[in-house]
Design brief:
With about 150 residues, the chain is α+β, with helices and mostly antiparallel strands. It has a domain of about 100 residues: 3-Layer(aba) Sandwich (Chemotaxis protein chec), CATH 3.40.1550.20. It has 3 helices and 8 strands, in the order ββαββββαββα. The termini are far apart. InterPro entries: SpoVT-AbrB_sf.
């Protein structure tokens, strides 16, 4: 039995060679993403999650509520501020977690933040402050679209 080997195809990357598509595209160098010299440090006391608002205004992330040590007995205040919703542990708060550990956003707060059933939201929990900030899709658009449209460098 004879073993035959398949030779690998390696594009020639010698200077002036435009045949190798991986080396150059139409004679131009490949674009590179600018990498920051030192990336920002990760905040260890902040958790991020994405959740869906259900038909009753409930948002569920049990890992986040567990990290905050929130239980069904935890009283909460929920306020709208600049299109975001701030949820905070508050002994005088009028809201509580559901028995299942969900945060129920009241209808007037959802309307103020332009949230509807099925919307996906970014939840940002600040463990030291015992708060969760809810970023609705419109707020995320305002944060992300300038970067995607080339208005800011990455």
């Amino acid at each position: 039995m004879t073993i035959s080997y398949i030779r690998p195809i390696v594009p020639d990357t010698a200077p002036g060679n435009t045949r190798g598509a991986s080396a150059r595209i139409a004679g131009q160098p490949l674009p590179l993403i600018a990498v920051p010299v030192s990336p920002p440090q990760r905040l260890s006391n902040v958790l991020y999650s994405v959740a869906t608002v259900d038909e009753r205004g409930r948002v569920a992330d049990r890992q986040m509520t567990a990290a905050l040590n929130w239980t069904a007995a935890t009283r909460l205040s929920i306020r709208e501020h600049d299109g975001l919703l701030a949820v905070a542990a508050d002994p005088h708060g009028v809201f509580k977690l559901t028995r299942q550990g969900h945060v129920r956003l009241p209808a007037d707060a959802r309307r103020a933040a332009h949230l509807g059933t099925g919307d996906r939201v970014l939840l940002v929990a600040h463990l030291d402050q015992q708060t969760v900030t809810v970023f609705p899709p419109g707020a995320l658009d305002q944060l992300v679209l300038p970067v995607l449209q080339g208005g800011e460098d990455l």
